[in-house]
Structures are given as structure tokens and as C-alpha cells.
Records
---
Amino acid sequence: MTDYFEAVKTRRSHRNVKPESPVSDDRIQEIVEFAVKHTPTAFNAQGGRVVLALGKHHEKVWDIVKDALKEVVPEKKWDKTAQKISMFKDSYGTVLFFNDESVLEKQQEKMPLYADKFALWADQTQGMLQHIVWTAFATEGIGASLQHYNPLIDEAIRDYFNLNESWTLHAQMPFGAIKEDPGEKSFEPLEKRLKVFK
Ligand SMILES: Cc1cc2nc3c(=O)[nH]c(=O)nc-3n(C[C@H](O)[C@H](O)[C@H](O)COP(=O)(O)O)c2cc1C
């Protein structure tokens, strides 16, 4: 239990990481595979989808983000935005998290009673999947952050990776060897957030 709590606490947002990894690509893949396999899903539907992008594929993700942002970010804000995207490109890899909408639709057809709940549950399982990868990375000394340039980049990402149209992008997680301390984190008082009755 202590190890698990320690892992949960060790996970932080590391936005500025190194373009290298403390562990092998095989180990990174193993972590992502484990998370995809073991994350719980409503009615065990298993609609979460993941792309692990390394090397030139990782770089392409951030080129796509940059191109998409160039179309919408005002000129005077561009330098700051471009710098931020370069920082993410200068990571080691990116995990892309998707939901397969065709799984969701099948669930809605099969169980109309819960039709309006499946999208919500798909979101919740996304969060669990992302957290498992993020936390497992932390235990291996990999720093990662959670970014959301979807839906702006969905189509270009789908085209580049040749993904099914039913895959909708939920989050992008750039990662790499830890470069700097993430800094102090403030916490709201637990008494305000948790009620215990015993
Ligand atoms: C659902 C969710 C969405 C988030 N979206 C972003 C994001 O788009 N960009 C970003 O830099 N951080 C994002 N974050 C990171 C949070 O800002 C961060 O987790 C929070 O400030 C606590 O810091 P910590 O991750 O270091 O514990 C997101 C976190 C969560 C849980």
C-alpha cells in the first residue's frame, strides 16, 4: 500500500522534460499495454484506445499541434505558443488517449436504459487510464503532463496514424526524463473535501 500511495504522490505535472528516457522503449510500451489492459471500464466495454508515439512519430504530433494552432492563435500571442509547443516536441515521446465511439454506440443500443450515461462513463474511464499511465511513468522516473489540443488536431492525427474515424482524441501526454522539480503543490483542507462518518 505504501508503495502505491508513494507512486500516486510521486506523479506530478512535468511539462518541461528531457528528450530522453530513463527506461527502454520496450518498458514504456509494457507500461502502456498494462494500463490499457487493466483499467476498468463500464460493463467491461474496453472502449479506450491509445497510440504510443516515439521518435519521428512523437515529433509529428507536435508539428500537427503547431500547424493547427498557427491557424487560430493571434499573431501577437504566437511566439509564446510556439515556444510551448517546441517544449512538448522536445520531450521523448507522447501517449495519445482516445475513445472508440463505436464501442459507446454499441453499448447505447444494447442497453438503452443507460444510453445517456455511457459517454460520461467513457470519460471517467479515460481519466483512470490516463492516471495509471501517468503514475506508472512516475515510478520509473519518467515525467509527463496532460495536454488537450483536441479537437483541433483530431483529423490530422487520425490521418497521420491511419486511425479509424470512430476514435476520438481525449488527451495528449508528452513525457521524458525529469528535468526539474515540479515545485510545491497547494492543497485545499481535507475537512472541506471529505466527510467521514464512523
Ligand atoms: C483532467 C485534467 C486535465 C488537465 N489538463 C491540463 C492541460 O490541458 N494542460 C496542462 O498543462 N495541464 C493539465 N492538467 C494538469 C493539472 O493542471 C495538474 O494536474 C494540477 O495542477 C495538479 O498538479 P500536479 O499534476 O503536479 O499534481 C490537467 C489535469 C487533469 C486531471
Note: The domain at 22-179 is CATH 3.40.109.10 (NADH Oxidase).
---
Amino acid sequence: MPGAMDGYERCNGCGVCTLSCPVWQQSHDVVLTFMGRALALQRGAKPEDLRDSIGACLLCGSCEPVCPMGVSTVGVTLRLRAALNGAAPEELTQKHAASSAKNGAMLIPDAALRERSGLLERVKTLLGIAVAEDDGADIAGAFEAGHASNAQRAGAFLKPLAGLREVVTSNGIFKRYIRGVLPGLEVTGLGEALVRLPAVRAALRPTDLYVIEARAYNADFDRCAPFYTALGRQTGCAMNLDLQRIAIPTGACRTADIECKSAPKIPEQIRWIFEGRNFQRIVVEAAEDIGYLRENVGVPVLHVAELGGEALQ
Ligand code: SF4
Ligand code: SF4
């Protein structure tokens, strides 16, 4: 498949992308990493030969900004998933017509945020934003799993978004999907949108660990890295960033139900992120992280929308 995979053929095997990869961290099996997939493809492997490796990937994007060869690691993995499903890669992100008028913003909450109605109300109030009736969970799941969405269904989901200036979403995978299908529409992660608010920002403490949603951050690294660096400097809080400013995922934010025996375990991933670090409180951007962190870390866990107010359940 030369030329059809966003540059896997440029991979030089340097291994930098494995350093932040949760799959490598837990398995130490290079075959399961992006580098393993790229080198195998270069040697003529077919997607079917790489099925377990393709399924294990969290699409967290931690490997992408660090690649010195500019390989679109997530794009390649998505295309491999599409190939396994017999879908043409371009079917994953079929372009839709965007309106030339650009007004207003809308929130697309994921299922974990919708389940917490009090938290969702708080987000709405803080951001003063309308909430999409259609959360597109099926569209996000299909995209992540490498299935082409039904064109009519995708069109119905995207229609209310087409004339907007900005979409705010708690589903990080939508940053890649919506930018692919509606180029020009600004897509912002929910955590970033909330922490832009002075009152929310002011409530962060130097003793907090702030857990960035890795998919949204890594998909938009060039803009997000300086934004969050400034946030850290201003508030003094620690973050789930490595020395290269890559956001390390907890693994909780997975939309698609992809069965894979080699997928990283969330509790192990959480132990890796928090090992040897001291903090008094955890503030998360992703509602999915709340339950996992409460189970695995013995300090209070808040959603960023709860900062400065009483805790919600
Ligand atoms: S960082 Fe890039 S070049 Fe290096 S192994 Fe990973 S994909 Fe290949
Ligand atoms: S996207 Fe995440 S899980 Fe997948 S190969 Fe890259 S770092 Fe590993």
C-alpha cells in the first residue's frame, strides 16, 4: 500500500514513539506498537497480519507529535482499521458541506458526561453554550473502529454543526473526525474550553494534578502544548505531561468497543501516570476518568467544571 498510509514508509525505526505509548509500557512487545506496525508494513505485512496490534491502539495520539519523520501515526492506524473492515480510508472522513456563515458554538457531550446530568448542567451554565441533541456516539464509535458511517446518518449529525463557529466536545476523537469532515470548523476540547474561564483557572492549586484528556490534546499538539504550559506556569499545578509535553492517556476515553486482548489496562496505566507523584487533589477533563481515578487513587477527584464550587456526584 505505498503512499496510502500517511507516511508509514517514512518510519526510520527510531523508537521515540514507543516512549509515551501505553501499549508499549504495558506489553514491552514492539509488534504491538506503532513502530512495529510501520516496520512490518514496510516489509510487506498486510493489515490482517497486524490485527492484534491495530486493535490494541488507544488512538491516544501520544506517539504522533514526537515523530521526527512526521508520520501521521493515528491516521495510519485508522486506515489500517478501515482496511480490516473492508472500508476505503476516505470513507471514514467524507467531506460535508460547511456553511459560509460562522456563528455560535455548540457542545457535543460524550456518554459519560450525559450520564452525569448535574455535571452537564454545570458545563452548560459555565460555558453558556447550547448542547447538541445528537451526540453522534455511533459516528464517533464507527470512526474509531475504522467503519464507514452511513452517509445519511453522518449528514444528519453534521447538519446542525455546519454553520457554527466552534464545536466544544468532551469526546476527543471528534477533534480528528470533525476536522476531517467539516474543515474550517473550530473544534475545542471541553477541558480547554472550561479552563479558559478565569474563575475556573483561578481555582486550580499548585497541589493539584490536572489530568488532560490526551486525545483532544495530542490531536492539536502545536496549539495545546503552549496553552497548557502557560496554564501550568500560572497555576503551579502538575499535569499528565511527559518531558516532551505529550499528554499521557489514562486509557478511559475509548469510544469504540474494540475487543483486543492486548489493549492496555486502565488501572495499570493510572498507576504508571501517578507513580511517585504527590498531590492533594486530581482535576480531570474527561468524565470517564472520574470513576477510574476514584477507584485507583486515594485523593479527591473533581471534574474541571466543578472547580470553585461544591462537588457533584
Ligand atoms: S517516532 Fe516516527 S520514525 Fe520513529 S519509530 Fe516512531 S513512527 Fe517511526
Ligand atoms: S496512538 Fe497511543 S496507543 Fe496507539 S500507538 Fe500511539 S501512543 Fe500507542
Note: Residues 105-193 form one domain.
